[in-house]
Write a structure and sequence with these properties.
Elements (H helix, E strand, L loop, with lengths): L1 H63 L2 H10 L4 H24 L4 E6 L3 E5 L15 H9 L3 E5 L6 E10 L2 E10 L1 H11 L6 E7 H4 L11 E3 L6 E4 L16 H12 L1 H8 L4 E7 L2 E11 L5 E10 L1 H26 L8 H9 L4 E6 L4 E4 L1 H7 L3 H4 L4 H5 L14 H8 L3 E9 L5 E12 L5 E9 L1 H18 L4 E6 L4 E4 L1 H7 L3 H4 L14 H14 L1 E9 L5 E12 L5 E10 L1 H13 L11 H13 L5 E9 L1 H8 L1 H18 L5 E6 L2 E7 L4 H16 L2 E3 L2 E3 L2 E9 L6 H17 L5 E3 L4 H18 L5 E10 L5 E12 L2 E3 L1 H11 L2 H21 L9 E6 L1 H4 L4 H12 L6 E6 H6 L1 H13 L3 E7 L6 H6 L4 E4 L1 H4 L6 H16 L3 E4 L5 H9 L4 E2 L10 H10 L1
Parallel strand pairs: 27-28, 30-32, 32-33, 33-34, 34-35, 35-36, 36-37
Antiparallel strand pairs: 1-2, 1-5, 3-4, 4-5, 6-8, 6-11, 7-8, 9-10, 10-11, 12-13, 12-16, 14-15, 15-16, 17-18, 17-21, 19-20, 20-21, 22-24, 22-27, 23-24, 25-26, 29-30, 29-37, 30-31
Helix pairs in contact: 1-5, 1-9, 1-19, 2-3, 21-22, 22-23, 25-26, 27-29
Length: 1023
Amino acid sequence: MRRLTRYALAFLAVEIVVSTTVIALHREQSQHTLNVNLAEQRAAYDAILTGTRRLTDLAFDSRVTTAENLRLFHQANSPDDEQAAVARGLLYRKLYPLAQDMKRNHVRQMHVHLPGGISFLRMHRPERYGDPLYPYRPILKKVNETRAPATGFETGRVTHGFRFAYPIIDDGDLLATFEFSMSFTAIREELERTAALPETHYQFIVKRRAVEPKLFEGRETLYRNSPVNPAYVVEDPASSLRNEAGGNELPRDVAELDHEIARSETIQRRMEGGEAFGRFIKAGGMSYAVNFLPVESATGGQAGYILAYTPAADHDELTNASFAIWLLGSLLLLLTFTTHHRLQKSRHFMSTVAEHMGSGLYVTDNRGRITYVNAAATDTLGYSRHELLGRNAHDTFHAHPPEPTPEGDECPFERVVRGGTLFSSDNETFRDAHDRLREVEVLSTPLDLDTGEKGAVTVFRDVTDRRRSEEKLQQVVTALRNSREGVMITDRNLSILDVNEAFTTVTGYQRQEILGRTPRVLQSGRQGPEFYEQMWHELDTADNWRGEIWNRRKDGSIYPEWLTISAIRNDDNEVTHYVAIFSDITDLHEANQRLEAQAHQDALTGLANRHALERHLDSLIRQPGARFAVLFVDLDHFKRVNDTMGHAMGDRLLREMAGRMQGMLRSHDMLARLGGDEFVAVLEDLDGPDDAAAVARKLIEEISRPYELGDNELSVGASIGVALYPENGDSAATLLRNADTAMYQAKAEGRNNHHFYTAELTRLVTERMKIESQLRRAVENEEFSIHYQPQIDLASGRIVGAEALLRWESPDGPVSPAIFIPVAEQTGQINAIGRWVLDTACQQLRCWRDRGIEGSGDLRMAVNLSAQQLSSPDIIADVDNAIDHAGIPAGQLELEITETAVMQDPFNACKLLEAFRERGVKLAIDDFGTGYSSLSYLKQLPIDYLKIDQSFVRGIPEDLDDLAIVDAIIALGNSLELVTIAEGVETRAQLDELRHRGCGVYQGYFFSRPLPASAFERLLRED
């Protein structure tokens, strides 16, 4: 009876071990599946928001902040309500095409807010404006206070969504805040479209306390209580107040799942803590993986949850399999113990089995001495069987990290014998014969023999290598599975080891056909050897490279991608692998091209817009000998049409009239719409003013004919102002302004007629032509000279540089640079003049050095480059020749370029400046703060100096606005590690203020006016 009792207890102990192991493995696998699903959904959610942010960044930069729109945003802030209303209408028309484009990209709303959080224009409801939004929309207040873009989730007074808000700033003034909104419906559709987890359904619930305080009165039915948690609500798609579907059709099982979620105290507690987690829940006879993805509000804190319901047939199969394993194990154990009488006959068999086990096994007696050990144990521990038998197992190889190895009496293996209890661990450590720690999974079972002797049977498995491999494998699996972007892994020799599904989708190569090949199979040929040399240089030095690259698909098509490459190193700091992650940005490129095309076309009439018109005029002006007329056409009393018949009828009239005018012009003439009822015609190849007058009369006659628009007959007149090129202006802005002035004169003379611009501009044109003629001979007649203004280091007080300033002594007397430089730029003579300045300034620097003037070897010579010089194909050669002929170090030459010149073509300007930097030439941005530059481009420019324009220096320290601007520029320069140079310093107070604020260098009349070379040389000798 005692023996039977012992057998029963032993069976029960082993049964507990088996059951515990099966349950633990089942839980571990289930939790791993939930974690992977949650990571995939988080990655997909983040990728959608990131992609939308890139789209709104592009739309805001290229289509919202145009020059014309900035003028309207200024007008929107006018105290005159009528002016503001006009701006609202014009902005609505200009932004309407963008709103439609954004809707097609799931961005449902666009909203303009004035400073202070006042609604100015809702593109989805333009008739509603003027309401204060700060109490409901904290993201607006954040953007206005920081003057920086912000993104985040917000609830609203009707609906909630993901907001992308941008400050509109011009000349340092905050004009408005522009906001894009994306609904959860769009997020859900994108999540379902990506199909990262097929058959997954999504639901968005939001905290009740974040919604109800903001809702308009009577709008409570837009939401209903969430069955998941009473603290949350969900959009009610059946609400009669809803304009668009806010919900989605969910399977019937979801209602049962929501009921189970509401009953679970654990889930409710984790939701209260705002955790991200997942649970397996049964409904409708099957399991679902339900993931809870928290949504953070724009101001921080958790605002709601995205619930993802994924059918989990695999989990049911795992559960059934685990049960089957447990049942089978239990039956086997029962069979083993009920047939114990056969064990004596099977000892030899069991010994053979033990010797062939993959796991290590050893038996100890009641004193911990090893009485049996199998081959797997000796192989793992590095001892021979003879060395282990009879030795104490605890003293020989038990280690027990991370805690210090306990005394023998406290060893858990020793307690198995004394207490007769089972010990199991998956985190135990043994020390082998070579003093190396081996991670093991272990099960130690007490042994109670019929003879009364006690001991223990210990089975262990070495998992050291497996765990290290699992860690590395997990990193790879995570990179592959959790990314919607393409992933490629290579060895150190660039042989491709693995790719993910996104890679095959983008490139067209299947996994098996690409493995073993190198990434060179993807090269498009668009990047030369220099590109790849620079890429590998960065990879070798920084272990990372990222940038845009063009690659080739399997079908031969070329596409752009954003690529990040990372080098993976081992413990010996040797590169073992490379991981490349990329995104196909074809859609972004195409969207940019569409935006660029739309940026030059009037949305209402299809005619050229102001931007296209100005470019056309600039192009004509650049053509030698060009003669053309600019006709500024403005309808008479068009406002009455809009006021009496509505904007829709007014728009029809404008389209009809545009067609008529286009029919009156020649194919090579241009017709553009500036906005409202303002049109401009550009007539080329005219014999004289009479030709322009004849066309103006025909246009007025054609415009004045009645218009049949449906059941309505309308008549309008037109007034036209005419400006001739080159007589009435030498720039697009001047010609348009003068034609506009003439148009108003036509209206003043009775309307419905035309008027030419003349006035004082005739004299100015004559004077300009004279300057142009004299400029052509100025270089060869040696009429030019250079004066040098010293630049002084504020810390040491020493002269560290000189700015070369061009002077012209014409036969009629000195001519101001402000007069002759623009003429030289407009006529193209600036390149020859600039070449002479470069050569002369560099030769002068060499002359001072040859004369042994102390400090001249470190003196910087600053030379200004115009926008036209930057676009000249010879500019690099001109700079190289000037340096080589003078024989000076390239680092002594500093080229100054205005920020406006850089922003005319930032991409090519950046490449040109990089070429100068590679030669060692120093670079400075001149007149900083007076133009319209982008800080994102400024950070990329390889410049050394930032010059503060004298218009800001002049007002300090009295003018607080100027002082703030100067302070900001100095801070910006310091943050970018640039030396700041202040221009136009004339007083001690200005100098002291600049020194106090950390300015590096200054120049101005306080120290010295620009001097001839001889006078500057004396100044150097005295310094």
